[in-house]
Amino acid sequence: MKKLALFAAVFIMDVEAEMAKNLTSPIANIMVTETTNSQHSIQNLSPYTTSFEINGELITLKPSTGVSLDCKFFSELELIVKNVEHDYFVVPCQSKVVLQPTFKIKYKG
User: Fold this and answer.
1) Which of 3, 44, 77, 106 is the most buried (most CB within 10 A)?
2) Is residue 104 part of a domain?
3) Cβ proximity of 107 and 83 under 8 Å
4) Range of 45's domain?
5) pLDDT digit string (tens) for 10-26?
6) CA-based radius of gyration for the chain
7) Is residue 42 part of a domain?
8) Highest taxon of the source (predicted)?
9) SS3 sequence, 41-63?
């Protein structure tokens, strides 16, 4: 299995170049939008440092940061959000995941 190419970046939203469709997220205050881009992106607008496991790779995002992945080898991505009650969902690789400013980490008990 090839490693995901990860590029940490701070994102500037550019909706002109994207045709987007909102998808449902099982976790409150996480917005998922399907795009036509060849990259998957995750943006953390929340005040919390949040960790994800994406197809086996651990990614930690500080507030106001993001990451993008090349969709060359994947059509879907398995996202595991660490330390939340409902921590798992699958999204199309060609999508954008945004942790809203109101997102809160709810630790598993």
Assistant:
1) 44
2) no
3) yes
4) 6-11+19-99
5) 333 443 344 557 888 88
6) 13
7) yes
8) Bacteria
9) EEEECCCCCEEEEECCEEEEECC
Please answer whether residues 92 and 69 qualify as being in contact, where contact means their C-beta atoms are separated by less than 8 angstroms. no
> Rounded to an integer, what distance in angstroms lies between the CA atom of residue 65 and that of residue 50?
10
Length of the chain in residues, anyone?
Answer: 109
Confidence of residue 58 (pLDDT cuts 50, 70, 90): very high
Is residue 109 included in any domain, yes or no? Answer: no
- Domain count within the chain: 1
First-last CA distance in the chain? 34
Q: How many CA atoms lie within 13 A of 71 on its CB side?
A: 18
d(CA 50, CA 102): 13
List strand residue ranges (DSSP E) for the chain, in order. Answer: 6-9, 21-23, 30-34, 39-44, 50-54, 57-61, 65-70, 76-81, 88-92, 95-99
